[in-house]
Automatic annotation (TrEMBL):
Superkingdom of origin organism: Bacteria
Residues that span the membrane, as ranges: 21-40, 52-73, 85-105, 111-133
Keywords recorded for this protein, A-Z: Membrane, Transmembrane, Transmembrane helix
Native organism: Streptomyces canarius
Name listed for the protein in its UniProt record: Integral membrane protein
């Protein structure tokens, strides 16, 4: 992705602001997803065809992870190593989600749509964050 494309997405041409915005978007969506899993693990589990306990565990992890990413997003100049850790965690999450869908999950139709959709979203966050991080170093 080119710098002008990133700037258009982030609505700024300042690389640090781009990075912070992509981290903040990730944090808001991840924390919201985690809180939804925590608050409605039973109904969501039935709807998606996933175990309630799995959603509770994922919800707790995602809520805490999202808060951590949010804290990172508040830094004027987010440190490179934690940003790389977020990018790598997002890539791993996307990959494991797709592997789990293919290898051991048996979701409903809604779950079979939701799992790849969230994997692509998280992978997209990783790509945007990586591109913005590279722009900060250029």
């Amino acid at each position: 992705m080119s710098a002008p494309q990133l700037a258009a997405l982030a609505r700024t041409s300042e690389p640090q602001a781009m990075l912070r915005r992509f981290l903040a978007l990730d944090a808001v969506i991840t924390t919201g997803n985690g809180l939804a899993y925590l608050a409605a693990s039973g109904p969501l589990g039935r709807f998606l065809g996933l175990d309630q306990g799995l959603l509770l565990g994922l919800g707790a992890f995602l809520a805490l992870y999202g808060v951590g990413v949010g804290i990172l997003a508040t830094r004027n100049s987010p440190p490179v190593l934690p940003v790389r850790a977020v990018i790598e965690a997002n890539v791993a999450w996307a990959a494991v989600s797709l592997i789990a869908l293919a290898a051991w999950l048996s979701p409903t139709v809604a779950g079979a749509v939701w799992i790849p959709l969230q994997a692509v979203t998280v992978g997209g966050f990783a790509a945007l964050q990586y591109a913005a991080l590279r722009a900060t170093r250029a």
